[in-house]
Design goal:
Elements lengths: L2 E5 L23 H4 L12 E6 L5 E5 L23 H53 L9 H39 L9 H7 L26 H23 L3 H6 L6
Antiparallel strand pairs: 1-3, 2-3
Helix pairs in contact: 2-3, 3-5
Length: 266
């Protein structure tokens, strides 16, 4: 099935939107006439035809992309071809821009599909580990004094498991962030950027509540080390819990336990 994409730029070289004021109104351009047989050797292999879609907009039709093709890029040879006019070069450039949008969206679907399946399992594991950790902490409120230290051990074990699950999640989330960033980097207009939720919905995966940050949040900097997003959020919760228990330990004169429970000792 052919795919279509509207190209919301004027057909002159100004790249002004149709609504933007122009000193002089451009003459109507026949997009199909510009892409004549003389330009065929420069067309993208998936290109089928172009349709006029109003005075300042065209729609390019392509055969379906697999996402595994090389990135569509305007052939440099056309700019050195004296037989082509600047208007023809511009139109061919628009064709490759439209092809790149469709290719990048298909590539994102192909790359994200296996990652989303793994991510669904890891998010479930994280959710269980986090719920267990929160439950262990809440149990202190009704626990007999003679079971307090054993409960501390159970909580610390829950902290370690939750942190591992958070790290596992951030690993797959980073891979998803890379896929999203690659697609967004391939297009020129924000309206052509594809949301991960759209791809997930097509696959029947519910990503509501998932923490997938911008790719920069997962990358180390040359200046300082930082935790990845979900780990950082978890560490804040763990530190709050440990600080609360340390306060209780000090107030009950159990100073050794209080020192051991001080935050940042996990």
């Amino acid at each position: 099935m052919a795919h279509t994409i509207p190209l919301a730029h004027a057909l002159d070289d100004s790249h002004l939107s149709p609504a933007a004021p122009r000193p002089v109104a451009p003459a109507p351009v026949d997009a199909a006439a510009l892409l004549t047989a003389g330009t065929a050797r420069y067309h993208h292999p998936h290109y089928l035809r172009v349709e006029q879609n109003g005075p300042d907009q065209v729609r390019f039709l392509f055969r379906e992309f697999t996402g595994r093709e090389s990135e569509p890029s305007s052939p440099l040879e056309m700019y050195r071809d004296p037989a082509l006019t600047s208007e023809q070069c511009t139109m061919i450039g628009h064709q490759y821009t439209a092809a790149r949008v469709l290719w990048s969206q298909r590539r994102m679907r192909v790359q994200a599909a296996p990652l989303l399946k793994t991510a669904a399992l890891r998010w479930s594991a994280w959710t269980i580990a986090h719920a267990t950790m929160m439950s262990r902490f809440a149990e202190f409120a009704t626990l007999p004094d003679d079971r307090w230290r054993s409960q501390v051990l159970r909580l610390l074990d829950a902290h370690r498991v939750a942190r591992q699950m958070a790290a596992d999640w951030d690993d797959i989330a980073e891979q998803l962030a890379v896929v999203v960033d690659d697609q967004h980097s391939a297009v020129n207009d924000w309206s052509d950027e594809m949301d991960l939720a759209v791809v997930a919905a097509e696959l029947g995966v519910d990503i509501k509540g998932w923490l997938v940050d911008h790719i920069s949040a997962y990358r180390a900097t040359p200046y300082y080390r930082h935790d990845t997003p979900l780990v950082a959020r978890l560490v804040k919760t763990i530190d709050d819990q440990r600080a609360r228990l340390a306060d209780v330990a000090h107030l009950t004169a159990d100073h050794d336990t209080g020192r051991q429970l001080a935050p940042n000792r996990l």
